[in-house]
Write a structure and sequence with these properties.
It is a single chain. The chain has a single domain, classed as Sufe protein. Chain: A (Alpha-Beta Complex), CATH 3.90.1010. It contains 5 helices and 4 strands, in the order αβββααααβ. A hairpin with a 5-residue loop joins strand 2 and strand 3. By secondary structure, the protein is of the alpha+beta class. The longest helix is centred in the N-terminal third of the chain and has 25 residues. Strands 3-2-1-4 form a 4-stranded mixed β-sheet, covered by helices on one side. The radius of gyration is 18 Å and the shape is globular.
Length: 173
């Protein structure tokens, strides 16, 4: 309660900060949807995968340039999808560019674990870094597939060419 005599109590102040944080998270997701980073085809890509979510219609192509030492030098993506899938793709490309394949796979594992396991530890949350803004998506199970599609596509792109599937799908084959 706030009035000229009592000010704001601690619970209301905390609630107000929580609301602002939720607004910030939504704004980051909307920004990445409106202005996706690395939204381009890489003609020199040497790793590639296609991901599709038939329930939502998300459909993305992921392109990577991985150098011989296993460093991801460039990342790009193209396609269409909902705001959650596009912002997840945008943030994923920014997060893995410049990382080793090993580190990118670890980040992918942490992100997927964060969104699919209600018991994700603080270590997993910390390892996800800025990507933990998607944690609220797990309240909407259908949207978890939207957020994780590009990460599953990354997993496929990083596999040896002989082991890659033609398409990654959010639905069981």
């Amino acid at each position: 309660m706030t009035d000229k005599f009592h000010g704001t109590n601690g619970a209301e102040k905390f609630k107000s900060q929580e609301v602002r944080l939720d607004d910030l998270y939504q704004e980051v997701i909307l920004d990445h949807n409106r202005r996706p980073r690395n939204f381009k085809k890489l003609e020199d890509a040497n790793a590639y995968a296609h991901g599709h979510n038939p329930l939502c219609g998300d459909d993305y192509f992921l392109y990577l340039v991985v150098d011989p030492s296993g460093m991801i030098k460039k990342v790009g993506f193209e396609g269409d999808g909902c705001a959650i899938s596009k912002s997840s793709a945008s943030m994923m490309t920014a997060a893995v560019e410049g990382k080793s394949v090993k580190d990118a796979n670890a980040l992918k594992d942490n992100f997927i674990h964060l969104l699919t396991d209600n018991t994700a530890s603080e270590t997993v949350r910390a390892a996800a870094g800025k990507l933990k803004i998607f944690e609220g998506v797990k309240q909407f199970p259908v949207r978890v597939k939207c957020a994780t599609l590009i990460w599953r596509t990354l997993e496929e792109a990083l596999k040896d060419r002989s082991q890659r599937k033609e398409e990654v799908s959010t639905e069981k084959e």
